[in-house]
Design goal:
The longest helix has 13 residues. The protein is α/β, with parallel strands linked by helices. It is built from ten helices and eight strands. Strands 1-2-4-3-5-6-7-8 form an eight-stranded mixed sheet, sandwiched between helices.
Length: about 280
């Protein structure tokens, strides 16, 4: 059996598209991917499939609380679940946000890939209405937060207008699927997600790629590290330009010397900007 350390290293490298992540901008040498997050307050199913569940975390105060719908990355593959983004959720909860972290069907799951992945995100987001009957949630102050592939899903969710959002925070999001396919990110994973190349599945690329859906009609905050070697920063730059040109309130915050995983690590210098972007949208 592989040791825990080896397994954690494999996870980090695989999430990075088989490239080891750059050292984090933190005094600690332990990757955020190796640390067990604080437990959620509740794990709740929003559907019948094994992957249709989410983790709820609530602030200690009475509420009602603003809510972040959190969507994890992992290049849409079933190998990677929501556990690694639990640190981000716990940090936002300490800052006063309730968090609803979604699991969803991914490549490798039964019926995973597109459109099931997107359908789960919409269904999970809509389930907030049910959760609000059980927990003190303020449904007038909801944002979507997504990292990497989850950034694509968070932006895409906003374009569906199925649940009112104050805005979207995309953390190193894959916001242009055609460009991601052209770059061959993570061994051509976009073609796996969408069932083919842009030539083979043009309508799916149009339906799923956030850059092709602007204007989204909600504020978008894009944060991206300048040292990200997993999702190139050019993708966020292009999306911001296209969204702003279409009339959206789209802003890009470039984080000097930050790598891909620094944005979901509350120990890093990048975290203050991430937290501020989320809280600003729910004021």
């Amino acid at each position: 059996m592989k040791s825990f350390a080896k397994g954690s290293l494999y996870l980090a490298m695989a999430l990075a598209g088989c490239r080891a992540p750059r050292p984090m901008n933190t005094p600690s040498a332990t990757s955020i991917l190796d640390l067990t997050p604080p437990p959620a307050d509740a794990r709740t199913a929003y559907g019948e499939a094994t992957q249709q569940f989410g983790d709820v975390r609530l602030p200690k105060s009475a509420g009602p609380h603003p809510v972040a719908i959190v969507i994890h990355g992992g290049y849409w593959r079933s190998t990677y679940g929501l556990e690694h983004i639990g640190h981000l959720c716990a940090a936002l909860t300490r800052a006063g946000m309730a968090t609803w972290s979604l699991e969803y069907r991914r490549i490798g799951d039964p019926t995973g890939g597109w459109p099931a992945t997107g359908e789960d995100v919409v269904r999970g987001a809509e389930y907030l209405r049910t959760l609000a009957q059980r927990y003190p949630l303020d449904l007038t102050r909801v944002v979507a937060v997504g990292h990497s592939a989850g950034g694509q899903l968070a932006l895409w969710l906003a374009a569906q207008h199925k649940i009112p959002l104050r805005g979207v925070v995309s953390l190193a999001g894959v916001s242009d699927l055609r460009r991601a396919w052209e770059l061959g990110l993570s061994r051509g994973v976009v073609a796996e997600l969408l069932g083919g190349t842009p030539q083979e599945q043009p309508e799916r690329y149009h339906q799923a790629s956030p850059i092709e859906l602007v204007p989204l009609g909600v504020p978008e905050r894009l944060l991206h590290g300048t040292r990200d070697d997993v999702v190139p920063i050019e993708i966020s730059r292009s999306f911001q330009a296209a969204a702003a040109a279409a009339g959206d309130d789209a802003r890009l915050i470039e984080l000097p010397d930050a790598g891909h995983f620094d944005l979901i690590d509350p120990r890093t210098h990048a975290w203050a900007a991430v937290e501020a972007a989320v809280l600003e949208l729910v004021k």
